[in-house]
Amino acid sequence: MAENSKDLLHVEGGKPLVGSIQVRGAKNFVSKAMVAALLAPDTSVLKNVPQIRDVHVVSDLLRLHGVNVDVDEAAGIVTIDAKKVQLADVADVDTLSGSSRIPILFSGPLLHRLGEAFIPALGGCNIGGRPIDFHLETLRKLGAKVDKEHADGIHITAPDGLHGAKIHLPYPSVGATEQTLLAAVQAEGKTELSGAATEPEIMDLVAVLQKMGAIISVDVDRTFRIEGVKELKGYRHTSLTDRIEAASWASAALATQGDIFVKGATQPEMMTFLNVFRKIGGQFDITDEGIRFWHPGNELKPVAIETDVHPGFMTDWQQPLVVALTQANGLSIVHETVYEQRFGFTRPLVDMGATIQLYKECLGSLPCRFQQRNYKHSAVIFGPTPLTGREIDVPDLRGGFSHLIAALAASGPSDVNGISLIDRGYEDFRGKLVALGADID
Ligand code: EPZ
């Protein structure tokens, strides 16, 4: 059983999710925009911020560095006054180690403000090794010295400040792209970053940096060019919607034969997902206020999916969608090319009755980095298979939401343990489930 009842959710499955919910700002943008505020000795205001754990972690880390952060959770407005910044006490920073991947992005801003930074050991979902070699390589090329890496953190200094550099990413890493942008905007001279990622969340971060006074361009070949500037000022910005949460609820509508209006969902960031959703047989209707996703009642069709960087099919979309694919009529294939171990969540689905087999081979049109290595990064899902409720332990954020969807789609009761992990990235998901008619407590 879960350590405490707060961490356990009892679900009576088999009821379609029907109704309307609101999705607010993107988890993988708002946290980075909050870090960007650190660059300017000024006040910044961020709107459409969801009430999720990642926001609290970044707020606490900013406060440890002497920054004033005011969070109006109901209004979704975060006000950051970064006029004063100080080095945080290592012991305090350690308390946040292991809780998120965001702290590494404090490096650039702290090096500009203070000439040094202590970064706690990172956390984040165990969906792969999650190395930060690209991040450290970028900081070194920009002139920083990574003094030492030890169990609970990294000490970085840049006594002579940062200078522009020519940087190429071996893989279009989202985090390493953000690392470079946050560090290069005030580096002396020009920085060229090739092989970058250009996710919508990254382009929203570029918009924030431009509002602050930065000079950043991106070429057709995904090369960013940054011209360092002396001064940056605070920004006012409204976050784009969380397209991962929106797609998660769309997958829940398919898996439970439901009908969900996701207020705030926007089409441009979800085009690839919408194409796949339609090929499976889901219906959607796009309005100015959001997107309605529903199961039309006839059988779902199997699909072959290959995850990739933007504008490809997003890796964070596949886990919730796999649950819907267990109800499709035939064989579906998912080739996960971004993370080497992102199918661990399928084990409990098989125990609930799904037929899913994992393979080391690249079951897709492109051989990826995990070819010929020992990672089971391709999945074949056979359906339709009825799911039966059971006790489930949540493995990671998106896998956890997939287990929730499976419990809701299954017949009979399920006890989902460790659900507070889902609070990291899904604002008020319990309230939303109730609004959609789920039978939970
Ligand atoms: C961000 O993680 C997101 N997290 C992830 O969402 C998302 O899945 C991922 O980007 C890809 O879109 C946040 O933004 C907080 P990466 P990030 O660097 O930046 C390798 C969620 O559920 N790599 O693009 O950590 C890495 O091992 C989370 O919201 C290196 O080898 O992802 C992986 O194979 C899950 N060295 C690949 O790049 C490095 O230094 C992509 O990782 C960095 C990355």
Describe the structure in your own words.
With 441 residues, the chain is α+β, with helices and mostly antiparallel strands. It folds into two domains: 5-23 and 241-440, UDP-n-acetylglucosamine1-carboxyvinyl-transferase, Chain; 27-238, Enolpyruvate transferase domain (UDP-n-acetylglucosamine1-carboxyvinyl-transferase, Chain), CATH 3.65.10. Helices cover 29% and strands 24% of the residues. It has 13 helices and 23 strands. The chain has helices at residues 27-36, 53-64, 90-94, 107-114, 133-141, 174-184, 200-212, 243-255, 271-280, 315-325, 346-351, 397-409, 429-435; strands spanning 8-13, 18-22, 43-47, 68-72, 77-81, 116-120, 145-150, 153-157, 166-168, 190-194, 215-218, 224-227, 236-238, 259-263, 283-286, 290-294, 304-306, 330-335, 355-359, 378-383, 391-393, 412-417, 439-440. The protein has a four-stranded mixed sheet with strand order 21-22-1-23, with helices on one face. Strands 2-14-16-15 form a four-stranded mixed sheet. The chain has a four-stranded mixed sheet with strand order 4-5-3-13, with helices on one face. Ligand EPZ is lined by residues 27-28, 101, 125, 128-135, 171, 173-176, 244, 315-316, 338-339, 397-398, 425. UDP-N-acetyl-alpha-D-glucosamine binds at residues 101, 316, 338. The active site is at residue 125.
